[in-house]
Specification:
The chain is built from 20 helices and 20 strands. The protein is of the alpha+beta class. The protein has 4 domains: 92 residues, 3-Layer(aba) Sandwich (GIY-YIG endonuclease); 115 residues, Nucleotidyltransferase, domain 5, CATH 3.30.420; 170 residues, 2-Layer Sandwich (Nucleotidyltransferase, domain 5), CATH 3.30.420.340; 53 residues, DNA polymerase, domain 1.
Length: 608
């Protein structure tokens, strides 16, 4: 249904008292600008409220109403359909006046496969319940990794890839450090392994009491058969399990809760949200969100968040919501009705002492996030100070470069970026340098900067920061002056002071101006942070390059190790790591590898 807005408001009579979605446009054209998308249980009442003078609107919404020329109405079967349709339209059309919640991530799951000897791993994507079992989703990959590490310690399930599992001829290092039972080489039969899988599933469901009961029975059975070492190992697992259970924030396993605890606060035209996820009574992770609040209305923002997040991630049926105590209001009843109809998720306040404790913890973390968010302003102030010292209008982008290598090999240059008030790791870049650079940092830096200046698709920074003294500063300055970017970029260098104490660092801004830490600690916080981050990023890249050299091309560089021997070695040891860790005697067990060749391979990987 399409309506043209008129001053006499006669168009309102055509709007039905039905659930649905409405769209406001700024022109009569079909391709006119979309201003806003909304939903309602009663379309007539909702749309009418925008055109009533008695209803108080924010300045931003009032400006939007003044631009409405055309309205499109879509009637839906029920309120659930209206909420889902609105969410889809906002995501696809991105209306000008809607508050947008962007969260396109797929959250990680724990997957237990359906193999004869099931594998446990981290999984993202569509699930196939017929083939595998899934647990989660978890708020972040660290929570999943932590859970899998615990399961390996307790139940020793395999985590290796199928091709590695199928080609093992001896146990890997995980068996040696007691994190796997080596089903790949038959050290445990299918029945024994499956019993451990069943316990792991009970663990992921939070049934700790049942696991302890089962393990205690196993321990007593082993003791009765005088298998005291096996009984002691099970005892240690029970102790570990009890320790894990006791250290959890939520450990009421008689009443396991699967729910999210959500705390929200408004600060500086933003709404800060902290979410703690509970899986079967166990704390499984947390995450936070920051959403713009242009109308200073936390309830509207919370509705946007709850709708956008839980329509995509329906991993719970219960959300405990705590809003800033200063705000004496709650979510709109109509929204709660529509949301429940669409998702069957209930939103209530935390009543029990246990949940209030969780909410308090979330609140403390949220305060820390709000406090840290103010750090962006500090960086902007520091950037403005730098611009003043350099005599330029503003500094919106700084690029800091560094080099890492090992005796000239695998040299990697890094470039980290400050842009628009924050150090943005999504803009970082690495440059692999040729072996001809050797250990000459100046030559490597020069080569890297020449490549950077040729990258016309990248924004031009106002400042390039380099780690070094006057020599490095002059090199950078000369390089800029002889490039097409002369006059557009300023050179700055930072060098370490006495005893490498950060408070004695110095910054060179030009040939005559050297600034000390005590002159402006805020400025140094920005520049030192960039310098240290560039150093870390360069070292990380160098180490990856070094490992790649040793693993990917390592065997190829060893004399008398051809394609067939490489394949035999990798198959026998299950990968390059197994080859690197093997002794001379173990290497000789591979077909075609004698004592001399085994010693050569061992010496290559151990720098002998």
């Amino acid at each position: 249904m399409e309506l043209i807005v008129k001053e006499d408001k006669s168009f309102l009579k055509q709007i039905p008292n039905r659930p649905g979605v409405y769209r406001f446009y700024a022109s009569n054209d079909k391709d006119g600008e979309l201003l806003y998308v909304g939903k309602a249980i009663n379309l007539f009442k909702r749309v009418k409220s925008y055109f009533q003078k008695t209803v108080q609107q924010s300045p931003r919404i009032s400006l939007m109403i003044a631009q409405i020329v055309r309205i499109e109405i879509t009637i839906t079967e029920n309120e659930a359909s209206a909420l889902i349709l609105e969410n889809n339209l906002i995501k696809s059309l991105k209306p000008k006046y809607n508050i947008l919640f962007r969260d396109d991530k797929s959250y990680p799951l724990i997957r237990i496969s359906s193999h004869q000897f099931p594998k446990i791993d981290v999984y993202r994507g569509k699930t196939n319940q017929k083939m595998n079992q899934y647990f989660g989703p978890y708020p972040n990959v660290h929570a999943v990794t932590h859970a899998i590490n615990l399961i390996q310690k307790l139940f020793k399930l395999r985590t290796c890839a199928d091709n590695v599992f199928a080609n093992r001829s001896r146990p890997c290092i995980l068996y040696q450090i007691k994190l796997c039972t080596a089903p790949c080489v038959g050290y445990v039969n299918n029945e024994q392994y499956q019993s451990q899988v069943d316990l792991a599933i009970q663990f992921l469901k939070g049934n700790y009491t049942q696991i302890v009961t089962d393990l205690t029975m196993q321990m007593n059975e082993k003791a009765e058969h005088l298998e005291f070492e096996a009984a002691a190992a099970i005892r240690d697992r029970i102790t570990l399990l009890s320790g894990i259970s006791g250290s959890q924030i939520i450990n009421n396993h008689n009443q396991p809760i699967t729910a999210d605890v959500v705390v929200a606060k408004s600060h500086s035209n933003k709404v800060f949200i902290y979410l703690i996820s509970l899986q079967n009574g166990i704390y499984s992770g947390d995450k936070h969100f920051i959403i713009n609040d242009p109308d200073a209305n936390i309830m509207v923002v919370l509705e946007v968040f709850i709708q956008g997040y839980y329509l995509e991630h329906q991993h719970t049926k219960l959300v405990y919501l705590q809003i800033d105590e200063k705000i004496n209001a709650g979510l709109d009843n109509e929204f709660l009705q529509m949301f429940y109809a669409a998702t069957k998720i209930r939103i209530i306040s935390a009543r029990s002492a246990m949940l209030r404790k969780i909410s308090k913890m979330a609140e403390v973390n949220l305060e820390r996030i709000i406090k840290n968010s103010n750090g962006d302003n500090e960086l902007k102030i520091a950037a403005a100070k730098l611009a003043s010292l350099l005599g330029i209008e503003s500094v919106n982008r700084i690029e800091c470069v560094d080099i890492s290598h090992h005796q000239g090999a695998n040299a990697v240059a890094s470039c980290v970026v400050y842009q628009d008030g924050k150090i943005d790791n999504s803009l970082y870049r690495r440059y692999n340098l040729p072996d001809s650079v050797g250990g000459d940092d100046l030559a490597g830096m020069k080569l890297m900067l020449e490549r950077r200046f040729k990258a016309v698709d990248l924004p031009i920074p106002q400042v390039i920061l380099i780690d070094g003294g006057i020599t490095q500063f002059k090199m950078l300055k000369n390089l800029i002056q002889t490039s097409e970017l002369c006059g557009k970029i300023r050179a700055v260098s930072i060098f370490k002071g006495e005893n490498r104490n950060p408070q004695y660092d110095r910054v060179i801004l030009n040939d005559l101006l050297v600034v000390g830490y005590r002159d402006d600690p805020g400025l140094f916080k920005l520049l030192q942070g960039l310098r240290d981050e560039a150093h870390r990023f360069a070292i990380t890249g160098h180490r990856k390059a070094q490992i790649k050299t040793m693993t990917v091309s390592g065997l190829e560089k060893i004399p008398n190790v051809g394609a067939m021997k490489r394949k035999s070695l990798l198959t026998h040891f299950g990968g390059i790591k197994g080859v690197m860790q093997a002794s001379v005697d173990e290497l000789q067990q591979v077909t075609g590898v004698g004592l001399v060749l085994a010693e050569q391979i061992f010496a290559y990987f151990h720098n002998e």
